Amino acid sequence: AGLLGSDVSESRAVVRVVNQLVREPGKECFWSLALDSRNKLQHVQRISIGSLDSTLAHPREVFERAIRARAAAIVVTHNHPSGDPTPSDDDIRLTRRLVEAGKILGIALVDHIIIAGDRHYSFRSHALL
User: Fold this and answer.
1) CB of 80 closer than 8 Å to CB of 89
2) What is the pLDDT of residues 11-66, one digit of tens each?
3) Deepest of 41, 79, 101, 103, by most Cβ within 10 A of its Cβ?
């Protein structure tokens, strides 16, 4: 609850928030963070827990809580237990689907951040959003 209201407009802030969440060691976990119009955190939802190198995330689940919370935007994030934050082809495809779904719903996808140990990859900073 202490995380709610945090400003998560920068990728480092998202990483700090996610690092405080319970994760399954050695497995990919996918999270959706619902934001208000000022990029303040409204809600955090774990979407799925996968295996060592994959997780399932469907736009329906990713946007579900954001819709209920009347969020203005979301940030999604997941970890790569391998230690390499480079996005896979599946990560890139999923991000594109989420951008399109967000356009339809009127909820912007602000960023997709991949966390791998002490490194992270931000789709927004790499101009992929």
Assistant:
1) no
2) 888 888 887 776 677 888 899 999 999 989 998 899 988 866 666 788 999 999 89
3) 79
Q: Which residue from 127, 41, 20, 120 is spatially nearest to 78, judged by alpha carbons?
A: 120
What pLDDT score does 18 carry? 81
Closest CA to 73 of 113, 32, 114: 32
- The Cα 22–Cα 17 span in angstroms is 11
Q: Which residue has tokens 């082809």?
A: 89
Which residue in the block uniquely carries the two structure tokens 């900073």?
125
Closest among 54, 45, 43, 37 to 114, alpha carbons compared: 54
Q: Name the strands in the sheet holding 29-35, side by side, starting at the edge strand that comes first in the sequence.
A: 41-49, 29-35, 73-79, 108-116, 119-122
**For residues 45 and 65, what is the distance between their CA atoms, to the nearest angstrom?**
7
Distance of CA 106 to the CA centre of its chain: 17
Q: How many CA atoms lie within 13 A of 33 on its CB side?
A: 29
pLDDT in the model for residue 1: 46
The mean pLDDT of 72-101, rounded to a whole number, is: 94
